[in-house]
Amino acid sequence: MHATNRLLAQLPRAVLRELAPKLETVDFVMGQALHAAGRPWQVYFPLQCVVSVLVTVEAYGSLEVALVGCEGLAGFPLVRSSQQPLGAVIQTGGAALRLPGKQLLLAMRRHPTLQAAVHDYTASLIAQIATTGPTNCRIRPCRRTNAFWAPIATISESPVSRPATKASSTTSR
Question: What is the pTM of this model?
Answer without folding.
Answer: 0.72
